[in-house]
Design a protein that fits this description.
single chain; 188 residues; Alpha-Beta Plaits; elongated; binds iron/sulfur cluster
Length: 188
């Protein structure tokens, strides 16, 4: 009570604020002149999505739907059909980027390394449509943002299962072929 009375009478909070302002008056500003000066993006940054292609340029996605099931924003929509040879065809694969929270769960969930998050972050636009990624746009993104070695290394560098670091929680559901040493919570 006494303290708050002193604070009120002497405006100590205002004085503290002014002292801080004065201290920073002569410090060199750190404002970045974006977009003239681009920020350095950390490797593995989670930017715009891309659908990965294999070495023959074929889409890796098989339309299993796991990414969509895991997505907390429910912004992935997959439409499949049956092909002539009874194989599943991914007719449409769409992501509503405006709803995405860039958690990366889709990438983690995909058993085929087929969906990725590129380092591309400059995609602001005035139309909602431009943020609705179709299969074609997502495949183009792979060519644009994961050229050559970058695409090859992406999953290995940022998403490979770190089995030596992985420890199971008690009662956790686990793939049956996981070594017993890991199931027990130890190292491989
Ligand atoms: S990054 Fe997260 S929110 Fe975005 S599409 Fe993937 S799972 Fe959904
Ligand atoms: S991106 Fe991966 S998880 Fe999603 S539907 Fe395709 S293969 Fe399945």
């Amino acid at each position: 009570m006494k303290n708050s009375l002193i604070t009120t009478i002497f405006f100590s909070e205002i004085l503290k604020g002014m002292a801080l302002t004065f201290k920073t008056l002569f410090v060199r500003p750190v404002t970045r002149r974006y977009p003239k000066v681009k920020p350095v993006v950390a490797p593995g940054y989670r930017g715009l999505h891309a659908l990965a292609k294999d070495e023959n340029g074929k889409m890796k996605c098989v339309g299993c739907g796991l990414c969509g099931a895991y997505c907390p924003s429910q912004c992935i929509h997959i439409y499949t059909a049956e092909g002539e040879d009874n194989k599943k065809i991914v007719e449409r694969y769409e992501i509503d980027v405006l709803r995405c929270v860039f958690c990366g769960f889709c990438v983690e969930a995909c058993p085929f390394g087929a969906i990725s998050l590129s380092e591309h972050y400059e995609y602001s636009n005035y139309s909602r449509e431009s943020f609705y990624m179709t299969k074609e746009k997502l495949l183009d993104n792979w060519d644009k943002y994961f050229p050559g070695e970058k695409g090859k290394r992406y999953y290995q560098d940022f998403w490979r299962p770190m089995s030596e670091d992985f420890k199971a929680h008690e009662g956790q559901a686990m793939f049956s072929k996981v070594p017993d040493s890991i199931k027990a919570g130890g190292k491989k």
